[in-house]
Sequence to fold (553 residues):
Amino acid sequence: MDLNVFLRSILVITEKNMRIYYFKGPVVVFGLLFPLIMFLTFFIGRNLDITLYFPGFLGMMLFFTASSVGPLITPWEKREKTYERLISLPVILESIIIGDLLAGAIFGVAITTIVFVICYELLHLSIMNAAVLTLSLILGSITFAALGTLLASPTTDNPSNIMMLSSLIRLPLIFISGIFIPLSQLSGWVLVLTSLSPLTYLVDLFNGAMNGNAVYPSWIDMLVLLAVILVFIGSAKVIQKRNLVKGI
Amino acid sequence: MYAIEAKNLRKSFGDVKAVDDVSIAIPEGGIFGFLGPNGAGKTTAIRMMTGVLIPDAGSVSILGTDVDKDPLTAKLKMGVIPENGTVYSDLTAEQNIIITAKFYGMGRAERESRAEEILTRLGLIERRNHFVRTFSKGMRQRISIACAIVHSPPVLILDEPTTGLDVYSRRLVIDTVRHMNQEGSTILLTTHNIEEANALCSTISIINKGKIVATGSPEKLKKTFDTSRYIEISFDQKVGHELFFIPGIRQVEAWGDKWRVYTDDPDRAVKSLVSLAERDHLTIVSIATSNPTLEEAFVQLTAGA
Fold:
């Protein structure tokens, strides 16, 4: 395989996705308004300790922004019949999966960084380890963008089917990820349940980087996220390859 | 080395054999047509050749590169217009071409000059900055073709490129196909339009129920089924069908103000009819011999489809 052609195909698919699906007024406005609404919903009237709960809020934001559009790209392109054209260009399945993933990750990092900087200035947040925070932001966005590409993989050309599936999977992941109750205050089977959500490990990383209040060592959180990325990408490839065999 | 070589391609969807042991070898430089009725397996075969669908069995190579083993290299050598060829509605005409050119590694200057050249050729230069969602079907198809030829591919594969187009767009598409062929591209196109295949293709394969039932030049295919020639003749007076009871004539039927006379030997039949007219003092108003058509070959080969 020609590595140059492969890398080029990934970058062009990323650019195509950014232009067509992400750099749209409504998407960007929603991407910025959504965190504001989430913030108000999360904090107003609950008298929460911002320092303690902000990492959870940040994790949830990254989770939503990085995995919001990705699940819709492939079904949308199948419906518009542009997917077949894309496959016939010099690309392979991996190019499409990684290109879709990169676009989601870039969008997630961009929106979350803007919101974080604003909150950092207004709320006078502290950062204990900027490097871990940055790395977590990147790793988290890739993880959830990979979830987006996995959610895009099932056989359908109807984006609304994927929207339902996406909500069905993403919302429970939030509830079991220690966002609403910090991990440090959980124990027993509830803590075990939280370990099933990749979001748990990202929030734990953010907690460690901002408050020094992590439950797991950073390297374990990062290792779990890396493993989850590989599982999501691998599963997406298996499903999409099966679709190519079935002709759908 | 063949431009496109497919060996023993098979594809089934459930119990339906969409493509059943199809093999073709298309030499470089020609225009090859895949002709068949709806549902014959043309599009399935094309989708396997372009790497869009994974075959159950068989292999495809483009200029010697196996599509399954080295898809990136194989796809660099071809341009494809899928059935209902669509492009990105939320990009402009020019952006669609430019982004496609990027997949082929074309530099910025080359991309821009080539996009301008193709848009001019296809009559869309004035609309270069318009979003494709505002375009008619014919204009979209032209952009689809522009994307497929932006890198001057040595192999161009078109699936039903003129279906549903107006006369102007259809003519532009056909002219572009001919131009690309003259520039050195080998063309493979599918169609169910017999006239189009007859006018464009140097070689045709007729596919029916997933199998190739005949391959040859249009003229060769016509001659293969050159069994039902007829003569249309009209006289200045009314005549009865008993007039045509002469040797070599198989069947006679009234055809408007004319008679249609079926024969296996048109030359002999024409001579007999002229003699007959002289004998009975009739004036022949018109007489014409039919030529065998590709449509007849197509109908006979795909009967029952």
The first helix of chain B runs from residue 42 to 49. Chain B has ten helices and 14 strands.
